Amino acid sequence: MNPKENTQPVVNADFPKQITAPVLSLTLCAIAANGIVAARFPLAAAAQVRLQPETEIAQSGGIRRSPESYKLGGGDRILVEILEVPDLTRNYEVLSDGSVNLPLIGLVSVRGRTLVEATNIIRNAYRRVLKDPIVTVSLVAARPLNVGVIGEVTRPGNFTITLTPGPGVAPSVQYPTVTQAIRLAEGVTGVADIRNIRVRRPQPDGPDQVLNVNLWKFLQEGDISQDIILQDRDTIVIPTVANFNQAEARQFATANFSPPPEKPRSISIVGQVTRPGAYVVIGGNTTSDLSREGFPTVIRAIQLAGGITSEADIRQIQVRRVTRRGEQIIPVNLWQFLESGDGSQDTILQEGDTIVVPKATLVNPAEAGVLANTNFAPPGINVFIVGEVNTSLDPLRLPANATLNQALISRGFFGYGNNRARRNQVELVRLNNDGTATKRTIEVDLTQGINEELNPQLRNNDMIIVSRNGLTKLVDRMNTVIGPVGPATGVLNFISILRSLFR
C-alpha cells in the first residue's frame, strides 16, 4: 500500500504531510466506526453508503423505512463533519434559497438533495481547498413539512407538520406518514377508497412521482410499508369508493385515521319520524349519559328525531351523502338488522348526511309489534278518549304501535260496567301534519287485528269519541224535557213534551 494515497485532509500545497502508520490505523478505525453507526442510525449514515433509487424503493415497499430519501430545504439544520478537521465540523442551517454557507468555500446549494447527495456535493466542493476530505452529513433538525391532503377527508387542505426527535441516546427525526397526515385532516369520510390512495411527489427535473397506498392492506394484514413516509410538498389524494360497502366502512371507522366517534356531526332526517329536522349526532346512546360510546349511526339519529312513526318503511331507508364526486345514496335496511343482526345496516353517519325514512305502502301487523319494542320506536303515544267513559279526561299513555281496540279496553275506558256507551261504533279524530283534522266513524270489532278500516294503529294525540247508545239518548232527553213539568203544567205543555220526545 502506498502511504501517499492515505494522507489526512490538509490545505493543498501549503501543508504537505504523509500519514504515519498510527494515524492510518486511527483513520481506518474511525471509518469503520462510522459505518457501524450508519448501519444502526440511518440518519447519521456516511456519504459513501449507496441507496436504491427512490422509484425502486417505492416499488419494493421499503419507502416506509427509508428516511434517507428525505430531501433538504430551507430551514433544515445539518451537521457537516470533516475527519481530522475539527474547525470545519459544525452545525449549519440551510438558508431559504436551499444553500449552506460553508467556511473556505462559501455558499453551496443542497436544495432538493438527499443527505447522500448533499454529502457528495460538499465533499467535491471542499476538494478545492482540501485533499481527499472525508465528509459526513447528517440531519440534526428537520424543517416543518408542507403536505396536502385532498379528496375524501373531513377537512381537506394544506398542513404543516413539525418533525420531532425520537427516543434514545442518539435520537433520530420521526418522519410523518400518510395516516398521520390524514388525522390532521380529521380523518377519512365514510365513502373513502382507502385501497387506492395516491401520493403525488414533485420531482426537481421531471413529472411528479406517484406512489400507491393501500391502507386496507395495512389494516387487514398489518403491512406497515403501506403507511409510507412523507416528504415536503407531497400531496395525498383519497378518491371516492365506486361501490360502497357498509361492512368495510364500519371496520375502517375504528382506525385512528377515521374521525373519532365523539366528533359531532350535523345531519338532517326527514320522512316518517316523530320530529323531522336537523340534528347533531354523536356516538353512543342518545338517551343516557353514555353519549360518547359507540358510533353516530342511523338509529341514533332516529332516536333524536323521536323514533319512527307507525307507517315507516324501515326496509327502504336511505342515507344521502354528498361526496367529492356528487351525491351518493346508501340503502339501509333496519329490518334486516333486526331479523339477522346485520350491524352493518346501522350505517355510521358523517357530516352533512340526510336520512330519508319513507312511508310504507302496507303495514304488516306482525312486524308492527316487533318494531314497537325497538329502541328506535317512540317510547309511547298519548291518546285522548272522551265521551261515555268511566275515567278522567287525562291522556292515555300507550305503546307506539297501539291500536284502536287496545285503547278502548285499556283501564276500563270501554268496560262493560258502563251501560251508557255505544259499543258498536266510535269516532276517531286525527290531527294532520298540515294543521287540519280528519274525523271518521269506525265500526268497532274487538276481534280484529291491525286493520286500517276496523282497527287502525293510533298516532300521537289521536282523539277517540265514545258516543251514547240509543236508549241513553232517549232517557237523557226525557230527563231534560220532563224536568220542568210540575202541577201548574197544562195539557198543551204535556202534549208538546210528548211530541219533542219522538221527533
At a glance:
The chain has twelve helices and 22 strands. With 503 residues, it is an alpha+beta fold.
Key words describing this protein structure:
503 residues; alpha+beta; Outer membrane lipoprotein wza fold like; 5 domains; 5-stranded mixed beta sheet; rod-shaped
What would you say this structure looks like, in words?
The chain contains twelve helices and 22 strands. It is of the alpha+beta class. It folds into five domains: 3-140, wza like fold (2-Layer Sandwich), CATH 3.30.1950; 145-252, Outer membrane lipoprotein wza fold like; 265-372, Outer membrane lipoprotein wza fold like, CATH 3.10.560; 381-468, Outer membrane lipoprotein wza fold like (Roll); 472-501, no CATH class. The protein has a five-stranded mixed beta sheet with strand order 7-6-12-10-11, with helices on one face. A five-stranded mixed beta sheet has the order 14-13-17-15-16, covered by helices on one side. A hairpin with an 8-residue loop joins strand 18 (381-387) and strand 19. The protein starts with 20 loop residues before the first helix and ends with a helix.
